[in-house]
Specification:
The protein has 2 domains: 212 residues, Jelly Rolls; 87 residues, Jelly Rolls (Sandwich), CATH 2.60.120.10. The chain has 6 helices and 20 strands. Strands 1, 4, 14, 15, 16, 17, 18, 19 and 20 form a 9-stranded antiparallel sheet that branches. Strand 14 and strand 15 form a beta hairpin. The protein is globular and about 65 Å long. The model has no long low-confidence stretch (mean pLDDT 97). It comes from Fictibacillus iocasae. Belongs to the mannose-6-phosphate isomerase type 1 family. Pfam families: MPI_cupin_dom, PMI_typeI_cat. Its EC number is 5.3.1.8.
Length: 318
């Protein structure tokens, strides 16, 4: 079973801040002009990807996880652990924060909190995002929120394509308008909104805020996490490690030619963000193009990549 890649059909999510770039840039068949999220690799109950090749074609990823755990190195856990998205932010996302595992389990009865990371695929000139805050304590943070001192509280960071941000649980953050990012995260959909610009939904209602939860889970004071990035070369493939964290390790792969590799992980998640190529495994050819998402299962062995492509690749950290 599966000596080659497992290709996945993405799930799309309407968002108040979304747009149409997922169709324009990746050719995805979206049905809504406010499509904000492509869940490219997902076993989450709110939107599992479906397998589109091989013996399990048509299966949702969470079912494959539960019934064919050998594909994932027989890892333990009742939930597929990671979620990979592409986000199209036509306008600003709400300022938000996510809980850690302990808080999520205690308050939300869910196994995972939400630590995530972002690779900036593209952005408009002058684009910014919120990454952290300027309060030194919980009480100062709460006072500034109550008084609506958002410009003083929120830390704005200018961005450009190729930037990378590691966003541990507890980090106040918001992706800014005109930005497309690839997000790798724990498989969790728990979000606490701190501020939403007094924006109204399609029914004219202000969206819910979660001030008490946000104050409870935010980190004080904010400090940028220190991450070590390394780079290696395997023939014509450059592998840049973007982050190695408790939950996931994420890489940027740049392929310009041919590379022979061995699948040594419980599974590898691959999202093609530019270009095209072919994966050769077990005597078969598997073409891939920009916008494809696939998993290299534990049941694979040696494989070869050929082409000109950029991919964001990840696996669980053990």
């Amino acid at each position: 079973m599966y000596k080659g890649p497992i290709f996945l059909e993405p799930v799309f999510k309407e968002r108040i801040w979304g747009g149409t770039k997922l169709q324009a840039e990746y050719g995805y068949n979206i049905s809504n002009e406010l499509t904000g999220e492509c869940w490219g690799i997902s076993g989450h109950q709110h939107g599992p990807s479906r397998i589109r090749n091989g013996e399990l074609e048509g299966w949702p990823l969470d079912r494959a996880w539960n019934e064919h755990r050998q594909l994932f190195g027989n890892l333990e856990g009742s939930e597929y652990p990671l979620l990979v998205k592409i986000l199209d932010a036509q306008t600003d996302l709400s300022v938000q924060v996510h809980p850690n595992d302990e808080y999520a389990l205690e308050k939300e009865n869910y196994s995972f909190g939400k630590t995530e990371c972002w690779y900036v695929i593209s952005c408009e000139e002058g684009a910014q995002l919120v990454y952290g805050h300027h309060a030194e304590s919980e009480s100062e943070f709460a006072a500034m929120v109550e008084q609506g001192e958002w410009k003083k509280l929120l830390r704005q960071v200018s961005i450009q394509p190729g930037d990378f941000f590691y966003v541990p649980s507890g980090t106040i953050h918001a992706i800014g308008a005109g930005t497309m990012i690839l997000e790798t995260q724990q498989s969790s959909d728990i979000t606490y909104r701190v501020y939403d610009y007094d924006r109204r939904d399609a029914d004219g209602q202000l969206r819910d805020l979660h001030i008490n939860q946000s104050i409870a889970v935010a980190t004080y004071p904010h400090r940028d996490p220190v991450i070590e990035q390394t780079e290696a070369k395997v023939q014509d493939l450059t592998i840049k490690q973007l982050v190695e964290d408790t939950y996931f390790t994420v890489y940027l792969w740049k392929l310009n030619g041919t590379a022979e590799l061995v699948q040594e992980f419980s599974f590898l998640q691959v999202s093609v963000i530019e270009g095209r190529g072919t994966l050769y495994a077990d005597g078969k050819e598997y073409p891939f193009v920009k916008g494809d998402h696939y998993i290299l299962p534990a049941t694979m062995d040696e494989y070869r990549l050929e082409g000109d492509a950029e991919m964001v690749v990840s696996h669980v950290t053990i």
